[in-house]
Target: Circumsporozoite protein
Amino acid sequence: MSALKIAALIALAAYVEARFGQEQIPVSAVSALGDAGFGDPGVAATIAGSIPGSLLAAASPCDKLTIADQIITELGTDQQVIDAAIGLVSAETNFNPFAVNVPFVCADATLPASEQLRGIVPLVDPAVVGSDAENANSATSVTTPFDAAGLSQAEVMIAQGFSNFTAVAANGDDVVLDGQDGAAAGDDAAAGDDAAAGDDAAADDGTEAPAETTVVQQPGRCGGGNNNTPSSTALVATGAAETAPAATSAVGENTGNGTVADGNDQNDNNNDDAADDGATGGDAAVGTGNLDFGLCQPTMARVAGLNGRAATEFTFIPQDPLCAQGQQEALNPNIITNRICDQLVNVCEASDEAIAACDDAQAQIEALGTRDQSTADTWNTLLGFDGVDSTQETI
Ligand SMILES: *[C@@H]1O[C@H](CO)[C@@H](O)[C@H](O)[C@H]1NC(C)=O
Ligand SMILES: *[C@@H]1O[C@H](CO)[C@@H](O)[C@H](O)[C@H]1NC(C)=O
Model:
């Protein structure tokens, strides 16, 4: 690893740690509620303990809003309690700067449910374009909440002029809301009437799905290993559902010819080329992002002529035999990225951070909408494996 890379990693680690410190703010305020005698013994401490996880990149941004409601329902409506809950609603949520450059925000209009917490918008990382306006809005909203009737926190933010984030629906899907600069949201502009949809929700009786949203990702897990059965087909960015590679299924599962043991080839610790740099972290495939992918290297290849296809037909495939187990090559890279992320969870024993980075990278590849060699290279780079030869079927 070059000195430059090491310096970059140290800088990045310091940065991540600095941002991580944001979490201490709502945690200590909620802990203090227990000391002040609010709630049954231990309840405030338990709630406080659940806060850091809700602010991590891997969590849904809706989680912290649920916890904020819980603070009020379990600890009461004293102003000190409400202030602590507001601190959580307005807290900055972490995201993995290796993988994405904008924060995640909850798009569930039913959250938070507590009237005292509605119309409050979160702080965002100062590195995000537009953060000045959003952070000013957040400070304002803490004392003077914005109109939030029928609107999710994400929709309130957009209404107040900040849309540089990824909205996440109640079910965990990333969604593009009207007014966001999503790759595929352009045409939605016609749906400018959705302000009316907001009123609808205010008047309605509990219909919770935010209107006019577009699903861009379903981070489906435990895909079950079915060949070419993508759990995410509604790809707005590409506009087309994957046509499963036709008729090759007769060949059966392509588990790759390597043995599982071959999956550990990347651990050879030779520092002599760029590709090896990605996996010099001892037993685990870590990449330059210093993420622990466990038994797997999460890289993707794009190769012609796989599995009896024409010599000119390129498809995507996981490079690691463990990731590729039970997975056929696919024309749609999103099938493969989805599979790799599933395998990190189910087979590879990857760390939560690595899984979160994979999910983030998956969303980015979907948003890119490309299907060429750069798609595979971008994926590999996002996960810290820059320089891996994506034209090779296996590593
Ligand atoms: C959103 O913020 C990111 C990170 O700062 C930046 O790269 C991107 O250009 C911004 N997007 C918009 C639409 O402003
Ligand atoms: C496995 O090996 C056979 C025989 O060498 C070859 O035809 C086939 O394409 C290989 N499949 C994979 C996935 O490498």
